[in-house]
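Before surveying the methods themselves, let us examine one representative protein, written as a sequence plus integers encoding its fold.
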Amino acid sequence: MTANPVIATVNRGGTTESQHRGAYVVTDASGKVVRAAGDVARPVFPRSAIKSFQCVPLIESGAADHFGITDQEIALCCASHDGDAMHVKVAAAILAKAGLGEALYECGPQWPDNLHAHHALVREGQVPRSIHNNCSGKHAGMLALARHLGVPTEGYSSPEHPVQRRVVKTLEEYCDVDISKAPAGIDGCSLPTWALPLKNLALGFARLAAPNSKAGHRIIAAVRANPEMIEGTNGFDTLVMRAVPRLFLKYGAEAVNGGAIPHAGLGFALKVDDGGKRAAQVAVAGLLASLDVWTAEEKSLLQGFATITLKNRRDTAVGAVEAVL
């Protein structure tokens, strides 16, 4: 198997200290490849990068309208949030609207990644709950969907549950894949996850942003209007979408990035082989900046995210993580 190309490097003292290999692809809604490098046909687990697809059934079923789910709440259903108080509040609101409670969560407890929220729990002598899990918004949406469908809420994380079967149908339709033939696993939040080729993931995002995808348009608009729901106030996805609002971007564990450029009719997907998150961040920013679909200002802003300055404990700049395209 041919090695994927280097798409990010770590530099120190004018010398390359580390290299990160990976693959990426940009396609339109017909599947036409606009740009690609590396093995984009090899299946990879997209992990949380596909939360927008997992949210589609909530909207298409009518559950979101039935329960009065707001754009802010839809954004949280697509989020890998950091457990801030605002995220917990919104997740609780989704559950309350569906007449459900935290005890039904099947994602497991997690200490908030947000340090203020983490320290607050410690000061108060509390332990983390499932609602602090960075996937609690997605799980709240799935529980609401189960309630709307009139199916058991218990076991909603099982691959055979009606909620997950609807997710499978969504992925198959948008990404043009046969999930029954895809490698399957269990995600960090206990939901099923399936490995998809990067080119199919990019195709799915392009279709999500296509004019005929009403659910996709609603999801993308909700996320764009509430970027702080996606990854917290200072998360990479939040900061990039706040800087370039015409972009839709979602990170997944083990260095997968996916998203859409709706005004250009494009979807994209990227994976860093070694799972390095910071490498994936600069690489996807560099990839996006290289596309001729932005204004000069947008391109400049994206280029700014394609480098992460490394500082030591005395706050001295000592190197950088940089995209290589």
